[in-house]
Structures are given as C-alpha cells and as structure tokens.
Specification:
Chain A is an all-beta fold. In chain A, 0% of the residues lie in helices and 55% in strands. The chains are: A mainly beta, B alpha+beta. Chain B: Its EC number is 3.4.21.89.
C-alpha cells in the first residue's frame, strides 16, 4: 500500500496532532455496510504532514466470517484533527474501485 | 482579655443567622451546578456530557486529566469516531476510537470494535466475557471537544478525598471571615 499525502494545510495554531487512518468499506451478503481500519498513524507536527509511505496493512483485513475473495471495496483516508483545546473535527477522502484478489489464503 | 470576650460574644450572637445564610448560599451553588449539569445532559443527549480522561490509552491526543465534551445523536457510528462506552460489570466508562463497524441494514444490528490510539491491540480484552463486539446501546456519546488538564481537579478530589475536605473547609472559613465584616 502506497500513500502520498500533503496534509500541511490542516495544521493551525490550535492543532495538536492529526490522527489519520485508512479504512476499507465494503458490502457483504450478511452486512450491508462494513468499515474496517487497515492502517493508522499520528502526525504530531506540520513538518511530518507531507509524506510518502509504503507499508503493508497494520491491521488484518478480516471480515465477520464471510468470504472476502474478489470483493470490491472503497478505501477511505480519514483525518481527525485533534486540537490543543476546543472542538475536534474530521474529514475524509474516498477512493473507490479496489478489489481483493480472487484467490488468497 | 476583655477584647477576646467581646469577640466571642459577637461571634455567638451572629452564629445562627450566619450558619443559615451559609447553608442557603451553599444550597444555591449546588442547585445551580445541578441545573447546568442537567441542561447539558438535555443539550448533548448524553447521560454524561462531560468526562475526565483517566488513562493514557489515547495519548498523545488525550492525556490523563483532560476533559472531554460529549455529544450523542441518532447518527450511525462510523470508523474514526472517538466514543465513550460502558462495559457491563465495569464501573468506569472507556474513551477509545472506533476502528471497525459492521452494520446489517435489515435487522439494524450493528457491531462495533474500538481501540485506544496508544494501545497495540483492540479492546476485545476489555469487553465483557464472551463479548466480541460493542453494541451502539453501550455508547454514551461521541467526543466532540476537549480541554486539557482541566480534569485534574476531579481526579485529585476523587483519589485523595482529604483535599476535598480541605477545600470545603477553606471555603467555609473564607466565607465566615467575609460575613463577619
């Protein structure tokens, strides 16, 4: 998984850190909506907000029992602005069109 | 010596009115605090609209002693939200982030998994015995705002009750001295 992002504009005088995570969203016959977090990180300062990383997922992509083979899913990058004090807010960017391989362990 | 006797006389004669007056003031302060608390409960829809962070599991975002403002709404829970929830049999609610949501449209059944930002693993070990997922009914509210360090007063007063007594004692004697003028 490759991520290139520039989140510097989210840092203000009141921003303590950014909590970002990537979640996969998909449907199964059993559950109409599933969201599973695959990776997260904390960005403590503006200097670190422009980055490129390549990692395997931090958390396992498993579903409540059903088959994930060949499943289509959306990947969403969420960011959560945690302030030094006051109101918190969050936003996200949705990227759709991913698909799990038809064959896997 | 006469001066001391005079003083004692004046204190004794004002004693009853003083005490009543203090009791009423105290009563008014407590009622006001209660009204504000209940109003907050109505406004935010949460049974506990303000909570103090007691553990370090959400660091560096929230530290022990911070205060969180909660809000509850009918909106469905989504990954990334910071929620405060109760576990059956445990007295203290937990503040962590939702990392997984599994929703069934038809039955309305929702399973939620949470994890503290600073914890290496998810919260399954904190849930009740045999419980693998959180239910939305267990969640008291979402964290929408916070103030750092402001909760230390509550933590100190809970963990070291002597401070609470000292504080009340100090306020009491300060009040008495003021009224004597």
């Amino acid at each position: 998984m490759n991520i290139t992002a520039d989140l510097q504009s989210l840092f203000t005088w009141n921003t303590k850190q950014l909590f970002i995570f990537v979640a996969a969203e998909y449907e199964t016959p059993r559950n109409s909506l599933n969201q599973v977090s695959l990776w997260d990180a904390i960005i403590p300062a503006k200097e670190h907000a422009k980055f490129w990383i390549q990692t395997a997922n931090k958390y396992r992509f498993i579903d409540q029992g059903s088959n994930l083979r060949g499943k289509k899913f959306n990947l969403t990058l969420h960011w959560h602005v945690m302030p030094k004090t006051g109101r918190m807010f969050a936003d996200k960017l949705v990227m759709s069109g991913f698909r799990l391989p038809d064959e896997h362990r | 010596m006469g001066w001391i006797a005079e003083h004692v006389e004046s204190i004794k004669s004002m004693k009853i009115r003083d005490t009543l007056s203090q009791l009423i003031t105290l009563g008014m302060i407590v009622s006001t605090a209660l009204i504000i608390w209940k109003a907050l409960m109505c406004l935010t829809g949460s049974e506990s609209p303000v909570v103090v962070v007691l553990s370090g599991s959400m660091e560096p975002g929230f530290k022990r002693g911070d205060i969180l403002f909660l809000h509850m709404s009918e909106a469905p829970f989504r990954a990334g939200e910071i929620v405060v929830y109760n576990v059956e049999g445990k007295p203290i609610p937990i503040v962590h982030r939702v990392i997984e949501v599994h929703e069934q449209e038809n039955s309305g059944k929702v399973d939620i998994l949470t994890k503290g930002d600073a914890n290496p693993v998810d919260d399954r070990s904190l849930y009740a015995y045999g419980q693998n997922w959180l239910k939305p009914q267990q969640i008291m509210g979402r964290a929408v705002g916070f103030v750092p360090y402001a909760g230390w007063v509550t933590i100190i007063m809970t963990e070291k009750p002597i401070i609470k007594y000292m504080l009340v004692g100090a306020l009491d004697s300060a009040g008495e001295t003021y009224l004597l003028f």
